[in-house]
Amino acid sequence: MTRKGLPKVYIIKANELFLFIGVTTQSLTSRFRYGFNAIGKNGYYGYQWKTRLLVELYVWYFEAFDRNQVENIEAELAFLIRAKTGKWPIDQNEIHFNNKFENGKEIALKCLKLFPSNYFYFTKRRLHLISKKA
């Protein structure tokens, strides 16, 4: 989970609410540190969900894919969640849409089908792993 350079898509959820879908090649530790500690420099205030006491974190890794492909999967996940719930993720600011990966929709569907088999949750900025057998 902390490996830099490994493309990852992650979903942040609280109870039944989808809050955010993101993509990163940074380690998640670095990505979240940046989002939690942002104070408005260059207009970035960090994650909107950072003040919540408890959120769930779902992560998928894609070693064989490049950034455009992973961003395509991110967009397809956001669209599928909107189709399922009627709303975009609540704290979503942007989605990286592109048509550069034909298999993105199929992979996003598989991700949601397995969802949630493993997830993490934050309490007071501590990360915990919960493993559920699908």
SSE blueprint and pairings:
Layout: E1 8-14, E2 17-24, H1 28-37, E3 54-61, H2 67-85, H3 104-114, E4 118-123, E5 126-131
Antiparallel strand pairs: 1-2, 1-3, 3-4, 4-5
Helix pairs in contact: 2-3
Keyword list:
134 residues; alpha+beta; five-stranded antiparallel β-sheet; globular
Mean pLDDT: 82
Distance between the termini: 20 Å
SSE order: EEHEHHEE
Percent of residues in helices comes to: 25-40%
Please state how the strands of the largest beta sheet are arranged side by side. Answer: 2-1-3-4-5
The proportion of residues in beta strands is: 25-35%
How many individual helices?
3
Counting helices, strands and paired strands, the structural category is: alpha+beta
Number of strands: 5
Low-pLDDT stretches = 128-134
Largest sheet: 5 strands, antiparallel
Radius of gyration over all CA atoms, rounded: 14 Å
For the record, the count of structural domains works out to 1
Anisotropy-based shape:
globular
Q: In a nutshell, what does this entry contain?
A:
The chain has 134 residues and is of the alpha+beta class. It has helices at residues 28-37, 67-85, 104-114; strands at residues 8-14, 17-24, 54-61, 118-123, 126-131.
What does this structure look like?
This protein is of the alpha+beta class and 134 residues long. The protein has helices spanning 28-37, 67-85, 104-114; strands at residues 8-14, 17-24, 54-61, 118-123, 126-131. It has one domain (8-131). Helices cover 30% and strands 26% of the residues. A five-stranded antiparallel sheet has the order 2-1-3-4-5. The two termini are 20 Å apart. Residues 128-134 have low confidence and may be disordered.
